[in-house]
Structures are given as structure tokens and as C-alpha cells.
Amino acid sequence: MRSLQNQLIFAVLGLLVLSGCGQQAQPQSRAAGSRPTPSPSVTVRPIGVNSPPQMQQIIEAAIEQTKVTTGYDPAYAALDYPNGDVPAETGVCSDVIVRAFRKAGIDLQKKVHEDMKAAWSAYPRKWGAARPDTNIDHRRVLNLMTYFDRQQKRLPITDSPADYAPGDVVAWDLGNGIDHIGIVVNTWSETSQSYLIVHNIGAGARLEDVLFAWKITGHYRYFPVEEPSPPVRTAH
Hints:
- Helix content is 26%, strand content 17%.
- The chain is α+β, with helices and mostly antiparallel strands and 236 residues long.
- Strands 1, 2, 3, 4, 5 and 6 form a six-stranded antiparallel beta sheet that branches.
- It starts with a helix and ends in a 16-residue tail after the last strand.
């Protein structure tokens, strides 16, 4: 019996490593023994007038997934290329990012694959791959992080909610070598005084107050918000 149990445990861990995306039933906050609770008071905040239109598209697409993606499946799957995807009702945490970006005309499957071909040595070797794989590479958290880093999209990691804006991508370390990723949206929690996250940690895409639930390992902003130009002074 113990042998069978061990086989099942290793099978589950194998699937998690395959996708490189975290699944954890009970989100653990940074305070020992505590757990983030849903905020009883949330408001939707408008996107800044200087925000690029793609940012609004990404945010809307992320939130829309919470109505569609109800499951989680880290199994390897053969995908079309480009624009390949698993069924919309399932997926892993990285699929939340990939699907949201596609609504803004950015196919991370294609972009990650092309960058991995051009700079194979820059990407992690955690999974023992010998060459790029269009079926899985973009669905692995560390690969997405590497791609964003190489595109110079990284922002500082801080403990201040004010530094995390709608449209930002955030990655976490769940412990035990499991990585996780999600996207900040424009739903504001009055309780935590921070924006909520759309992510899939095992029960489908959810909108939750978990920005600081785990150790943040990556913070990215693909579309920087342009500062308004100062008024032009004219001579009189």
C-alpha cells in the first residue's frame, strides 16, 4: 500500500514539475499560521488615462477567465503553434497570463519560443529539455520570468501595495520548488489596501486578495504607463 501511495505522490509532483506552475489548495500568507481571507469590501478602479489600450485588454481578459476556467490540469498537452491552447475551462497558472496577453495581440507562446531559439542558454534547465518545445515552454513560470527579464520588463520587488499596478505580472515562490504566477487587476481591496490578483492555483481562475500571500520572486510591467507631458510654456 505504501508503495502505491508513493507512486501517486511522485506522479502528482511530476505533473507539477512538468508545467512548472504551482498548485496549492490553501494559500499561506507570510505570517505563520495565517491565511489571507477574501476582502468584504472591494471596488473597481478606473485605469489611468495615460495607460495603453493593451493594458485594459489584458485586465479585462484576465477577469473574464474567472467565469470560464473552472479547473486545473498541469499535464503535458500537444498544442497548435502559434496561438495554441488547452481547453479554456482548464489550464495552469501561466495560462492565465498567456490568455490575457493574447487578447492584447501578444502571443507569448510564439514570443517565448522565438526567444528561446535565439538564446537557449539564457533559459532554465530545470526540466531537462534538450531543445525548445512550443507545447510547454510558455506554460512554465520560470520561462515566462526569463522572457520578461530579457525584455527588460522587470520592476523592483517591494512590500508596498502602491508599487503594484493593474496589468502587472507577479510571480511567487510557494515553497518546495514550486513557482506560481498571476496578474494584478483593477479591483481594489479596502481591507488590504492593495489590488486583487487573477490566478489559478488549483481550483480554476480566481480573483483573490493574495498579492502578499507568498514570497514574491518576480514583478513585471509589460506596458509602462506614460507620464503626461508637461505643459509647453510660450513666450509672451
